[in-house]
Amino acid sequence: WYQRRVRGDRSLFVRRQINRNSGHQHDNMPRPTGGFLERLDKGLVVGDGGTLFALEKRGYVELGPWTPQTVIEHPEAVRQLHREFIRAGADICQAFTFNASECMLKERGTRKHDVRKINDEACKIAKEIAHPAGGLVAGCLCRTSTYVTTRNEELVKAEVKKQIEVFKEQNVDLMICEYYATVEEAGWHVQAVKEFWPEVPVCASLSINEDTDVHGVPTGACGVKLAAAGADVVGINCHYDPFRCLAATKKMIAAVKASGYDKVHFMCQPLAYMTPDASVQGFIDLPEFPFALEPRICTRFEMQRYAREAYEAGIRFIGGCCGFEPYHIRALSEELVKERDWEPTFPIRWGKFLEKHTKPWVRARANKEYWQNLNPGTGRPYSASLSKPDQWGITAGHELVQQHEEWTSKEELEKGQNFKKQLKKC
Predict the structure, then answer these.
(1) How far apart are CA 93 and CA 131, in angstroms?
(2) Region of poorest pLDDT, from 69-73, 237-241, 251-255
């Protein structure tokens, strides 16, 4: 049954579920209340997962352009994924506006819809699902081709303000500036938000490793620069597995605190893929990217370990990025039940309900020790445990990374293929 409660300007739903098989009765609501920063100050916020990758696997996103036309062409698919993340325990619905800047929508012949329309519809869909359940909606900015092509602060800020204007009109609860290879561009985006909409909470996360961004700025110093730019929450997202992202975020935590930014919170939203062998560009350098990453997927128990280690490190905005499915978010939620006073529907409790399985050897797995210490096999007798990443050593300024609106030409493809052949000879 559902009992509706109202606190302030947010509707809150309390649901009591009775598991008819086990006889166990538990409340898995209410969720936390208040605004985003208020919730962080009180304790913990769980993010959602990798909308882009999840929708591609379901047949709704074209890989390559990585743009979110789905919010217009298949809105119900986006709604359903938001529902599943919320049901799994996410407190945040991140509007599906990844790569939804005008410059990225124009890239290589991909533009089909207006930048304003895409961002507007994405916000409406997220609000429709999140707010009735007591969740919050985040607008999303990410890196732009304008930065890669021009590295001009004024042009970059003008580009993202087209999106910020829509987010402000839709009155999203917070902004997430994410997926940057350089702290310079991330800082400009944070400043653009604060200049145009000073009162909105801003999160800023980089897609970098434990050492530096791609321009050589140390990871800890990157966190300090984001805080100085005005970010309320700083951290790491994407490109690396949960434990490498945690290592990078810990460096930010130490540096930011040492610099006196006592009110800044921290976030981590990693890949759901194990990437111990990924180099400076993260999983994009791996030969399995993007169509053969499945053997690297983290188990739900590795996700529970990630959630526990993140919380103990002082990270209070814990979520996921590419590869994170709703069941991964459910694993985070289950690990953090005591901290949140909230339990997801049908928790697995380290296999507790396997006690009812018909096979005795499966019943023997109904314990935490078994799943916590399992070393999963790949099922491929001759599979490699690690891969050799592509390390082309090129970045902004090289002809092969120049961006344009036209479809990639045959000549460009041949140049790239020849460049790769030359690297193999070295």
Answers:
(1) 9
(2) 69-73
Res. 20 pLDDT band, cuts 50 70 90: very low
Q: Where are the alpha helices (DSSP H) in 201-299?
A: 219-229, 242-258
User: Nearest Cα to 181, choosing from 133, 233, 144, 128?
Assistant: 144
Token match 């990453």: residue? 293
CA angle 304, 307, 313 (to 5 degrees): 140
Whether residue 181 contacts residue 209, with contact meaning beta carbons closer than 8 Å, is answered with no
C-alpha span between 343 and 334 (Å, rounded): 6
**Residue 379 DSSP one-character state:** S
Closest CA to 101 of 159, 61, 147, 45: 159
Report how far residue 319's alpha carbon sits from residue 317's, in angstroms, rounded to the nearest whole number: 7
Three-state SS for 25? strand
> Two tokens at 262?
């006592």
For residue 298 the two structure tokens come to 């983290």
Contact status, residue 214 vs residue 184, Cβ threshold 8 Å: no
Q: Do strands 174-180 and 202-206 pair parallel, antiparallel, or not at all (unpaired)?
A: parallel
Q: Give per-residue pLDDT as tens, 94-131.
A: 999 999 999 998 875 556 788 999 999 999 999 999 99
> Which positions ≥6 away from 3 have C-beta within 8 Å?
13, 14, 15
Mean pLDDT of the residues in the chain: 88
Total-model pTM: 0.87
Residue pLDDT, tens place only, 156-178: 999 999 999 999 999 999 999 99
264 vs 84: CA distance, rounded Å = 30
Token pair 């009109």 is found at 169
| pLDDT at residue 32, rounded to an integer | 65
Length of the chain: 426
Locus of tokens 């590419």: 322
Helices (H), 259-350: 300-312, 326-335, 337-340
